[in-house]
Amino acid sequence: MEILTSQSTFVLSDELLEKMDAYWRAANYLSVGQIYLYDNPLLKAPLQLSHVKPMVVGHWGTSPGQNFIYVHLNRVIKKHHLNMIYISGPGHGGPALVANTYLEGSYSEVYPDISEDEQGMKKLFTQFSFPGGISSHVAPSTPGSIHEGGELGYSLSHAFGAVFDNPDLIAACVVGDGEAETGPLATAWHSNKFLNAKSDGAVLPILHLNGYKISNPTLLARIPHEELEQFFRGCGWKPYFVEGFEAGDMHRKMALAMEQAINEIRTFQKNAREKGDDKRPLWPMIILRSPKGWTGPKSVGGLKNEGTFRSHQVPIPVDQAHASNVELLEQWMKSYRAEELFDQNGRLISELAELCPTGDKRMGANPHANGGLLLREIRLPDFRNFALQISSPGSVQGQGTVTLGNYLSGVIKLNGKNFRIFGPDETLSNLLGAVFEVSDRQWDAQVMEEDEFLSPSGRILDAQLSEHQCQGWLEGYLLTGRHGMFNSYEAFIRIVDSMFSQHAKWLKVTRELPWRRDIASLNYLLASHVWQQDHNGFTHQDPGFLDHVASKKADVVRLYLPPDANCLLSVMHHCLGSKNYVNVVVAGKHPLPQWLGIKEAEIHCAQGIGIWQWASNDQQSGPDIVMASCGDTVTLELLAAVSILRKHFPELKVRVVNVVDLMKMQSELEHPHGLSDADYDSIFTLDKHIIFNFHGYPWLVHRLSYKRANRNLHVRGYIEEGTITTPFDLRVQNKIDRFHLVIEVIDRLGNLGSKGDYLKQQLQDKLLEHKHYVQRYGKDMPEIAGWLWGE
Amino acid sequence: MEILTSQSTFVLSDELLEKMDAYWRAANYLSVGQIYLYDNPLLKAPLQLSHVKPMVVGHWGTSPGQNFIYVHLNRVIKKHHLNMIYISGPGHGGPALVANTYLEGSYSEVYPDISEDEQGMKKLFTQFSFPGGISSHVAPSTPGSIHEGGELGYSLSHAFGAVFDNPDLIAACVVGDGEAETGPLATAWHSNKFLNAKSDGAVLPILHLNGYKISNPTLLARIPHEELEQFFRGCGWKPYFVEGFEAGDMHRKMALAMEQAINEIRTFQKNAREKGDDKRPLWPMIILRSPKGWTGPKSVGGLKNEGTFRSHQVPIPVDQAHASNVELLEQWMKSYRAEELFDQNGRLISELAELCPTGDKRMGANPHANGGLLLREIRLPDFRNFALQISSPGSVQGQGTVTLGNYLSGVIKLNGKNFRIFGPDETLSNLLGAVFEVSDRQWDAQVMEEDEFLSPSGRILDAQLSEHQCQGWLEGYLLTGRHGMFNSYEAFIRIVDSMFSQHAKWLKVTRELPWRRDIASLNYLLASHVWQQDHNGFTHQDPGFLDHVASKKADVVRLYLPPDANCLLSVMHHCLGSKNYVNVVVAGKHPLPQWLGIKEAEIHCAQGIGIWQWASNDQQSGPDIVMASCGDTVTLELLAAVSILRKHFPELKVRVVNVVDLMKMQSELEHPHGLSDADYDSIFTLDKHIIFNFHGYPWLVHRLSYKRANRNLHVRGYIEEGTITTPFDLRVQNKIDRFHLVIEVIDRLGNLGSKGDYLKQQLQDKLLEHKHYVQRYGKDMPEIAGWLWGE
């Protein structure tokens, strides 16, 4: 493989160096200004305490380093005509990114009020860490960002997600050395084994070793150089080191390292694209070791500040109690010589403004960082073509995810490089294997003879066992304007509880920003769910992600529990076509009776909740009891219970309700999908007993419906019982089985007389008999496993 | 540093090799038997389909490799008199660990019914992956285990947690190459920067590269040898490679590698302990590259099996549909020559049994793996000595975590090596800094001049920014019989949602195992909570961990929200002394008015809920309204509201209730701390309006109390509003502030006449005035920030 080694002698001219240094000073000046100043932004007047914010908060430590990186990225973007986005991993780089996008003009284009003049600069400063203003980390409100600071760990997987299927894009990803200690980031270095140099873009990681986290040193800054280099070579990267503190020296080193890195990226891509070289490249990365709080005060109050953890937040306290520090602050700010950088009106002088790329090449204006701008609609096949034929309810057995797999392979075929499936090596186990008939898994490490479905260019990313990576990649992919889905075991999606929360927060906030365009929803398919774990048992049982998601803002989250395969098709079709939501779809993979033909399924899913007339017998009179369910396994048991009830008590009027869209249970005032009280009451009645068989924890249904009039709601669901056992016995242990349901109906109604007592006794005997059978034979009694509707 | 290099020429004798190989065959035989056999355990009769389980499930792939490791660990334990535990990282190594503990006799000691004879072996086989039996991963029921398979990622941090302060202990930690791809495991390699060779034990990681996960190859098995070695050297380990498949060759290599590793561990420890060498050692690790499903069928149905992903679960299907495979199974099982290994009664022959260590040296009987056996009670100082003096409610401002920090330093002083504090670099930020007056942070990487509180022997592990590591280390520390606490930002504890779940599951299951002894509770202190985030904003706001924890089994979880510093002292004192729980304590760090003297706090916390008579005026007549709160900030606002109400409506009878122990809200039938209905009703009344100001999401209170008689419960709490703003404005945006509370009381009562209407208008004006003030000055109106009770 040819590398243009001539480039490694690249020397930054003194003139350009001076200009870049001046630009860097401008960004640093704006960063300090944001943290401190309320007025007098250009320091035209001597600085007074009244010019300083009443409450000075924010983070300085990472900002100068990121400003340094930004100006150097600008240089290579211009020189090499790069298409580049900037991902700011460190928790609190807000001042830096805001400063840079302001300098390049992209900030004022989005926020015209923050104009490129003294008045605008004043507003820029004031809004930072100010009530109603902007946070000290990079946020949705920051132009050019697809990655929020705050919670750490996901920058690198976001960067990879962004460049998948974007062959011209380079994601420059600044990884803080604090963030690098998190688990998700630590494993994200291996993302390079999933990148295709031919059809994907590149990630340029810049590890920013500034040596400290909040108050501790960082691990990677405190191991020998040799170990650090071995670590990254072991992760498959070629590190370029840029280390020091003297500005001129550092500019030269950084410029050289950037040249080398860009040159290598280009060469690898050329080799792959023009020469068909499909060996995994040793991609370049940069390790920037610079002082924390670089260019800040050397010491404050007798304690060293620049280069220590003390520069993490506000280096110099300035307030009533520290009024004399105003002078120190002024001295510090004046060290940047703003008068040389901005004209009298507060605008960056043109000589420096010329250093910026222009138009969409500015990282604050790159459309990939506002993915909705680039979004192409997903093309969806007609889901009806993948339907199971159902002659009558319960007459056919089907497996939800198997049916869905066929549909998903149709989606893959139609969407070229606009759709991907993500999973932690569970796609086959979740029985979505049909997708491998149309696409491989993307994989760029070694392949051996017995391997299946691996190639450098697959549509499916499921070959790393890391839910964090799946979630991070998918988020990056969606945020840059594409479509996708994450399939996971239901229990282990909890691993990304916190990542989901942060993405939901991102979506909530972006909805309030008119310039942020719609992006595709994040779709979860939770398969291999709680109700059948066979040899896995208790560790694999957890339906609580539903509760977690339901706690988020109603305009962002949607929860679907289709009762059978055709409903699953209809629901997933809907989700894949939606925007700006997080959709959670729960579906099993094991054979279950099927209920609805595809037409009925479509109507039922569109309504989200409905009375199943074919299973009900209260049409003339209204019900004596309402039997409701939400989820696949629990619907089977509910219908079996109804079947028993109707056989033994033909005069009993039973209404059967099925819920697909869980948020229907909530009030319309709280969720856009919620039923009005009138609709709810017409389905559930005002006072009849409702036996509700729910897939997850029962209290979720209670809490969604707690304001409804009918207080006779009795919810069954998963109550953390059972482990290694048969499918039916697990239901019995959690009391969602047909027998417990019928017994509850008998107890609740209390008016079924001796016939009721007799049946109850029979069912209790049956439960005992089943228990003994399972203990003896290790499987369910055949007549239970084989039950069909109406028998 | 001296390494006894003579040992590197160690050669395993042929005789011992033969015996170890035979022992390995015995363990493999028992592993296969567990997966398949229902009867005929010694294959005395020709194998029939009826001898095979009706439903064959389980995992073979990892088992032979782990059996291989176990027999080699046994050798070094015996030879070097080691004190060693075995941590099985791969998801499904159950058959191996059960087989080995059975062979060494520790299994039958715990489960006498599974005796060391043919009858016992039959039961051993039957129970595996059988209803009511044991899971296919290592579980609490497995003797010698502190680590459950199932969810992956935590083996290495558990291992480190186990050896902290256990200088003689070695944790042999088998890391599966699938698990190695998870984030938590990836960053856990860096745990070696926190280990003190002098006062801690050692971890011997054994990376088991068997090449496949479920259906994909693994990353670390598919990168060049050079990268793999660099990776681990970069992580600070010295890897010994044991690669191959031929048994004799592999035994010799493994024995040599183990000798070298143990020798190095001993040498490092000697240097540290006798020569005072405190340089971070390059600890040894072993990389075992062996075929997945080693010794299993070479191929099945024409497809290669041993050495491929196809050996992950059950290699040969044997059931009615595959009846002819019985022969293949028999052939496979006979390849282990059980007749040479077990006597006629089914007992391991003495020549092989001699290979096991004896007594507590057997890994299945090591007391460290049943930590309660070693538990020494924690010594707690008198928390009353750390109390704030409160002359009257609201007269003093205090900071909860600052007060707690003093107490915790007292705990550290009293407990030598029996207590540790864990945190992700947030201990100072959570204002627990007093602990650093009595202990450093443990840190074994480079130290520089400006660093604070770092040394190789600290009691506080807060220098890695990883919640996963904190949780994993603490779990390992507790499970081996010590005490500890995890302090975290409230929002980011969600990162370990799933780890918490698995630990809670472990606790639930161990309570049902009489031989598992009580261990100390896992205590969370969630500080820097949702109600004051200043410059951090929305990403740092999430009180939902409470909801998550509340969904677990009631006999395991406890949630405490002390309203002030003295209550925090009392609560934490209680938690630190408790056993077998997960305690979650939420407390702020910012100055707030204090309410209770230490005596009152102690009584209040012991009750968990109470009417605050000093704030109520309904003593004579019963209340017109009940004003309740749970949490520190919300209690301040509630009391301020009550103060306004009592000033403006002196005739209104207000009852003030404070909840410390959230589970009091639940019924006694659902939680051991729950109030009886009678007690609940006597506090909250049957029908009066209850305005409940809650720290977290409001629906949690609704769901805990949904079966209570009084339906007039109106809960306020965090509703996901607000970001960068002032503390009071955040409360206003979420409507938990005093003004919204009073307005709700006026609206709910509806009988306060024109005086009520007038006050409502005044308060609405006040809210508007405050909003403008905040926007203008960036801080709260001073008279609000400075409010004291009774004004």
From TrEMBL, chains A, B:
One of the record's GO molecular function terms: aldehyde-lyase activity
SUPFAM superfamilies: Thiamin diphosphate-binding fold (THDP-binding) (SSF52518), TK C-terminal domain-like (SSF52922)
InterPro entries linked: Phosphoketolase, THDP-binding, Transketo_C/PFOR_II, Xul5P/Fru6P_PKetolase, Xul5P/Fru6P_PKetolase_C, Xul5P/Fru6P_PKetolase_CS, Xul5P/Fru6P_PKetolase_N, Xul5P/Fru6P_PKetolase_ThDP_BS
All copies of domain Xylulose 5-phosphate/Fructose 6-phosphate phosphoketolase N-terminal, residue ranges: 12-373
Family stated for the protein in its record: Belongs to the XFP family.
Organism (species): Pedobacter kyonggii
Protein name (record): Probable phosphoketolase
Record-linked Pfam families: XFP, XFP_C, XFP_N
Enzyme class: lyase
Xylulose 5-phosphate/Fructose 6-phosphate phosphoketolase C-terminal domain span: 589-789
Cofactor(s) the protein requires to work: thiamine diphosphate
GO biological process, one term: carbohydrate metabolic process
E.C. number: 4.1.2.-
Top-rank taxon, per record: Bacteria
Assigned keywords, A-Z: Lyase, Thiamine pyrophosphate
